[in-house]
Amino acid sequence: MPEYAAQAGEAFAQVREQFEETLGWLAGAEAGALEHAELEDQLGERGRELQRLMFQGQLDLRALREQHRQDVTGPEGAARPRAEKDHHRPLTTMFGEVTVSRIAYRAPRLSNVHPADEELNLPEEKHSHGLRRLAAVEAPRGSFEDARAAITRATGVTIGKRQVEELAMRAAADVDAFYGRCRPEPAP
């Protein structure tokens, strides 16, 4: 158990540092001189950064605790006998961008396999499911530019209009299949 506590302490060190810095700022003269709207805005930004660091800390903790496996195969069924730690990929979440570190399982002339990606249910692309859901909700309300602006306002994440369009289109791709399954059979 002490190893788990040490790993958690390592993974969440930046969270503690950011939290203490935010508390110090709140107790200080700078925050005390702000009007409520300015305080709300700055605390919102600091809070999102704290949430991003918490998300990153959880990912880092999972990477520290990821166990080497012997049974990894690829989608074609071929074994991946070699394992390399510290393979990274970016993930843009509703709190900002984080980095996912995980073990890559390899074999010559075959693509890498990352079981941790599957365990986390990571999308193939860069944007998290939360951002995808938000894009799907905001896009039908107006233009893709309006959706982009709404996402940035809600999350602080800067996302391009084209990315919002692509995320919304991917979300809509399953609509016909969903309603096709829901269609009742004709009554006798």
Structure description:
The protein has 188 residues and is of the alpha+beta class. The chain has nine helices and two strands; from the N terminus they run ααααββααααα. The longest helix is centred in the N-terminal third of the chain and has 30 residues, at 36-65.
Top keywords for this entry?
188 residues; alpha+beta; 9 helices
Brief description of this entry?
This protein has helices at 2-11, 13-27, 29-32, 36-65, 115-120, 129-138, 144-155, 161-172, 175-182, and strands at residues 82-93, 96-106. With 188 residues, it is α+β, with helices and mostly antiparallel strands. It has a two-stranded antiparallel ribbon.
- Residue fraction in strands: 5-15%
- What does the average pLDDT come to? 91
- Please bin the fraction of helical residues: 55-70%
Give the terminus-to-terminus CA distance.
Answer: 64 Å
Tally of DSSP β-strands: 2
Low-confidence spans: none
Describe the global form. flat
So what's the oligomer here?
single chain
Q: What is the tally of helical segments?
A: 9
Main sheet properties: 2 strands, antiparallel
Reading the helices and strands in chain order gives HHHHEEHHHHH
Please outline the helices and strands:
Elements: H1 2-11, H2 13-27, H3 29-32, H4 36-65, E1 82-93, E2 96-106, H5 115-120, H6 129-138, H7 144-155, H8 161-172, H9 175-182
Antiparallel strand pairs: 1-2
